Amino acid sequence: MKKIYLSPERRPAPHGPYFGYPTLFEHDVTTSIAQKTAAALTRCGFSVKMAPPAATVRVRVAEAISWQADYYLPIHTNASSATPREGSARGPEVLAYGQPGGISWRACQMTYEELMAIYPAATTRGVRQNNTFYEINSTPMLSVYPELAFHDNGADARWLVENQGAIAEALCRGVCRWFGVNYTAPTGEDWQQRYLSLRQSLQALLEENPAQI
User: Fold this and answer.
1) CA–CA distance from 213 to each of 120, 159, 202, 204, 210 (Å)?
2) What is the structure's pLDDT at 11?
3) How far is Cα 166 from Cα 147, in angstroms, rounded to an integer?
4) What are phi and psi of 78, to 5 degrees?
5) Which residues, in sequence order, are CB contacts of 189 under 8 Å at separation 6+?
6) What is the pLDDT of residues 138-162, one digit of tens each?
7) For the chain, which terminal residue's Cβ has fewer other Cβ atoms within 10 angstroms, N or C?
8) pLDDT by 10-residue block (mean), the chain, 213 residues
9) What is the β-pairing status of strands 93-96 and 145-150?
10) Which is it for strands 145-150 and 47-50: parallel, antiparallel or unpaired?
């Protein structure tokens, strides 16, 4: 059984709050998504450990190594501005170690594709190299580091808050693809997935053609 270590944002308020949600911070949403991801991964046959909330990144990496994790999954949301003003950047990206075409890039690309399959706008941030973050350069196991969307942008913040379950399932599908494991969908939620897909398609249409609606 493959072991997946989840590491959501540990700091209670590392940046400003989610735009439009003055009491909601990255730690709150990514921890909730991590819990849902853990449930999805367990359902698909993986062994899962979630980092203690207050543990530093060094403690988390050491724990993952001691546990002999096969896959290290930090979970974060992004910000393009350090001011209270709304940021304009949008969309998921995934941070990879090393060069394009390597193991890290291939695994990160799978997760990026799964996130973009549910994200409602046509952004192209893609997979990006990052060899400086401790949870990327100090993990002997594979690390896939998604920045799910920009919480300082109103549309992205709303998407993050309203689609936590779907995001968790997308992260789970990325792990399943990497290990060649069949993804098991949540029982009885097919209608919800169809509704979400339709809603996102309509939202993307509205954003792309505002003057024609």
Assistant:
1) 17, 21, 11, 12, 6
2) 79
3) 15
4) -105, 165
5) none
6) 999 999 999 999 999 999 999 999 9
7) N
8) 96 84 95 98 98 95 98 97 89 96 97 98 96 97 98 97 97 98 84 55 60 49
9) antiparallel
10) unpaired
- Beta strand 127-129 with 93-96 is parallel
Helix (H) or strand (E) holding 136: helix 134-137
Residue that is written with structure tokens 């580091």 in the block: 145
The answer to whether residues 32 and 46 touch, using CB atoms and an 8 Å cutoff, is: no
- Give ∠ CA 29-180-4 in degrees, rounded to 5: 40
Q: What is the torsion angle, in degrees rounded to the nearest 10, for the CA atoms of residue 139, residue 182, residue 114 and residue 59?
A: -20
Cα 73 to Cα 55: distance, rounded to the nearest angstrom = 15
Amino acid letter, 161: V
In 3D space, the residue among 33, 43, 113, 102 whose CA is nearest the CA of residue 73 turns out to be 33
Between strands 47-50 and 71-78, the pairing is unpaired
Stated pTM of the model:
0.88
Whole-angstrom distance, CA of residue 198 vs CA of residue 47 = 33
Side chain identity at residue 172, one-letter code: C
Which DSSP letter does residue 16 get? P
Tokens 């543990």, residue?
Answer: 55
